[in-house]
Design a protein that fits this description.
Number of helices: 0
Helix content: under 10%
Strand order of the largest sheet: 1-8-4-5
Structural class: mainly beta
Order of helices and strands: EEEEEEEE
Radius of gyration: 15 Å
Number of domains: 1
Largest sheet: 4 strands, antiparallel
Distance between the termini: 7 Å
């Protein structure tokens, strides 16, 4: 993942909400020996409910998956990334 180009920094006004919606694709993971996960983060905190797990038994090919999260506004700056 490219944490530099796949990030978004925004100030969310109090009383507002930011909805983050991402569709991504994992490509050719045959030979994967451990489970892997992808999540959305706000700074260093994982956004609850935004995780996607890939079991070690996943074979080659393409798998699309969505990630979604909602962040309540607090008039503070938030940097959203995928990891």
């Amino acid at each position: 993942m490219d944490g530099t180009n796949l990030s978004y920094t925004v100030t969310i006004p109090t009383g507002s909400k930011l909805t983050v919606s991402v569709t991504a694709e994992v490509v050719n993971v045959s030979g994967l020996s451990i489970s892997e996960a992808v999540s959305l983060f706000d700074g260093s905190s994982e956004l609850p409910g935004s995780e996607m797990y890939f079991p070690a038994v996943l074979t080659s090919g393409y798998t699309q998956f969505p990630l979604q999260a909602v962040i309540a506004g607090d008039n503070a700056s938030h940097t959203i990334t995928m990891r």
